[in-house]
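Ticket reopened. Same input as before:
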Amino acid sequence: MTNTIGALPFEQFSNFLKSEGIRIETGPFVTRLRTKLTDVIENLALLYSDYPAFTQAGFSDFHLDIHKPASIRRWIQPQVNFTFDELTPFKPLPRPQAYAIFEWGLNWCISNYAHQYLIIHSAVLEKNDAAIVLPGVPGAGKSTLCAGLALSGWRLFSDEMALIDPSSGQLVSSPRPISLKNESINIIRNFSSSAVFGITINDTTKGSIAHLKVPEQSIQLCNQKALPKIIAFPRYRKGASTSLSPLSKSRAFMTLCENSFNYTIQGKSGFSTVKTLIDNCDCFEFEYSSLEDAIRTFDTLIEQIQ
Amino acid sequence: MSPSGAINSTHATNAWSLATSGEYHWAQWNDSDEVVLHFTGSGDTYLISYFGYLLLDTLKGSPKTAEQLDRLISSSNRLSDDLLPIPKEMIDSHLFHFKKLGLIEL
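Engineering reply: fixed in the latest deploy. New output:
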């Protein structure tokens, strides 16, 4: 039956994960997950409590298994493996990174297989029926800004991937916990008392990471698509004044292509989709150091767009 | 082929034409002179200067030599007067570059 994960007794949730698996719905995707790892189960129970889940068999887009490799490494420097449809696409990671490998692995599945969408490495949020697309290279401050906006009344579509429906040009919502790194974790902890974090995972290739729980409303409304109105390429620079500078649409086009996971796979359709996206949006470069100022800037901008 | 070799060949009687291996799809906005081109023959997308766009656009329809391109663009009123006359090296370097990208052919 369908339920949210939070509505399932923890023991039942845990038992399903350890046996036949549980199917979790994150917007347009259903992921069947199996794991026996307690830290992963507990983190999922916390961060995914508001997501619909199915305990009975049925269609799943991705079949994932997070488990310890069956080798001597179980006892010496234990590791964790990510399995997708019975394949193991990555080398194992140190055991404490088990939850991270689930989130990273699911991102990998979507970006490599969900080619019904044009996918851009970007945060996406919506307010007043208008969506902003925030593409950014790692370290640009995209996730921090995204978390700040999501905790300030904006509806989260995604922290990692803009999913664009080529037939309508609309953005599709698939909100998942926001991955914050290093200093960003405390910035967001101090920014909002309502911020809920999962476990902090240290010593990853990205440093320390922790995942921020998605506001419940973003999950409840995730079937509602939105038209993009603003594309802003954020860049955090310590001490910088908040600055929003217009970016030519042709330059924005090329940068979006560079940030896309599957633009080249989509061919002519990808070109048309990006062109429509750019046609519909005002494009900017955005530099900031103050999260509060950044949020005010986007609040004002979205009101002006209306 | 070296750039100097291309210069010699473009100013001979050789006529250039758009590549037949794919379609040209353009995106252009009024906030800049630069134009985006997607060429289905290679699957690649390029950011092209306005002059480069004029060259490719002028090649539509029939093959043309570098001299013909020069004459047609110069008389088209699509290039501001301060950019005229068009340096031959500018045409040659664009043609050479476009040939390397597979966008035009002799």
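The interface with chain B takes residues 246, 248-251, 253-254, 257, 263-264, 267-268, 271-272, 275, 278 of chain A (CB under 8 Å). Chain A has a mean pLDDT of 95. Please confirm and we'll close it.
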